[in-house]
């Protein structure tokens, strides 16, 4: 499974920082950590299988963000994420991050975006992998902050930045607040993917599609309990970026066997597989694929279909998509 080519569409930068790198940057930049023991630090960074909730899971992001406040650290962490992905044969990776989280020590939004872009380009030059960036606006922040992110990223569109996202703690009805900044983003040329239906509300998925024009949905698990959302996703051919291990941890599902991804696929809904957060969920694309394979006794034909779905759904150029398809055929 490790040798098969892979496409990952839903991966958070701050949730995918190597434990060793957190320690190294903290020591170099004199950043205080709760522990300088690698084993204890990993325990602080990796969410347990039994999280109490999504909120409990998200607590793990404070520590990595503390070491993501300089150009050098952002570039390094991005390069290492792409390096880790390339080593398990990920051919195309979309990395998302909230630029505003990395301005605590004076970086501008543009400097943050450029630093992440530099790390991605460095990895593309070193490994057989291609990538793009998704800018995340936090639902826990103001609507004005979303406008700031949209404006800051505008000049990077077509040069590594491809889409806008809304993430963080999910409350019912959040979409209404962000209609205007997302509409502006679409006007500028951003593609749209929205975290919705991760914690209980299928209605949020409906709103993300109808109010915000989402082309893809991050997670979307709870359309299983909302027939209208289910039908809308199916009829509009909206793509779900599903992250099995993360969904088990955050209690979106009780187990891999109870994850709706296979049922959705069989029903004709477009599903893809991603890690969500490689460090916080202590996972890889290979592990996610194996977990689904074991849970549903699937064969490689399912994986090939999901790979093709992910290529088609990628916010990439036709040229990159064609290249990704040839990577799979070369393995067959």
Primary descriptors:
TIM Barrel, alpha/beta, Adenosine deaminase, 15 helices, single chain
What does this structure look like?
Strand 2 (90-97), helix 6 (109-126) and strand 3 (130-138) form a beta-alpha-beta unit. The radius of gyration is 18 Å and the shape is globular. The chain has one domain: TIM Barrel (Alpha-Beta Barrel). The mean pLDDT is 96. 47% of the residues are buried. The chain has 332 residues and is an alpha/beta fold. The protein has an 8-stranded parallel sheet, with helices on both faces. It has helices at residues 19-28, 38-45, 54-58, 62-66, 71-87, 109-126, 143-153, 179-188, 202-210, 227-236, 244-249, 261-266, 285-296, 300-313, 318-331, and strands at residues 6-12, 90-97, 130-138, 161-167, 191-196, 216-219, 239-242, 270-273. The record marks 219 as: Important for catalytic activity. Its cofactor is Zn(2+). Residues 5-322 form the Adenosine deaminase domain. Belongs to the metallo-dependent hydrolases superfamily. Adenosine and AMP deaminases family. Adenosine deaminase subfamily.
What is the CATH level 1 assignment?
Alpha Beta
Count of structural domains: 1
Within CATH, the superfamily carries the name: Metal-dependent hydrolases
DSSP summary: helix tally:
15
Name the structural class: alpha/beta
């Amino acid at each position: 499974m490790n040798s098969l080519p892979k496409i990952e569409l839903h991966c958070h930068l701050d949730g995918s920082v190597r434990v060793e790198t957190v320690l190294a940057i903290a020591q170099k930049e004199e950043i205080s950590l709760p522990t300088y023991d690698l084993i204890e630090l990993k325990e602080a960074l990796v969410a347990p299988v039994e999280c109490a909730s999504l909120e409990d899971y998200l607590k793990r992001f404070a520590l990595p963000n503390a070491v993501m406040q300089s150009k050098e650290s952002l570039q390094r962490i991005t390069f290492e994420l792409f390096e880790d992905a390339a080593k398990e044969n990920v051919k195309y990776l979309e990395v998302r991050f909230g630029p505003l989280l990395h301005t605590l020590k004076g970086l501008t939004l543009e400097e943050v975006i450029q630093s992440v872009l530099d790390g991605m380009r460095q990895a593309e030059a070193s490994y057989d992998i291609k990538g793009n960036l998704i800018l995340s606006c936090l639902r826990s922040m103001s609507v004005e902050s979303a406008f700031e992110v949209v404006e800051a990223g505008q000049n990077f569109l077509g040069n590594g930045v491809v889409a806008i996202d809304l993430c963080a703690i999910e409350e019912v009805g959040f979409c209404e607040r962000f209609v205007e900044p997302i509409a502006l983003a679409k006007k500028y040329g951003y593609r749209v993917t929205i975290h919705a239906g991760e914690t209980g509300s299928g209605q949020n998925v409906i709103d993300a599609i109808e109010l915000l024009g989402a082309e893809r949905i991050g997670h979307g698990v709870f359309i299983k309990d909302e027939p209208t959302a289910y039908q809308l996703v199916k009829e509009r051919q909206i793509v779900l970026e599903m992250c099995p291990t993360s969904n088990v941890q955050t209690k979106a599902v009780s187990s891999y066997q109870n994850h709706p991804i296979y049922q959705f696929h069989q029903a004709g809904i477009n599903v893809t597989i991603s890690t969500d957060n490689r460090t916080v969920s202590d996972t890889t694309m290979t592990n996610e694929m194996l977990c689904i394979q074991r849970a549903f006794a699937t064969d490689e034909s399912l994986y090939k279909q999901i790979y093709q779905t992910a290529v088609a759904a990628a916010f990439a150029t036709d040229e990159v998509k064609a290249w990704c398809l040839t990577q799979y055929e070369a393995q067959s």
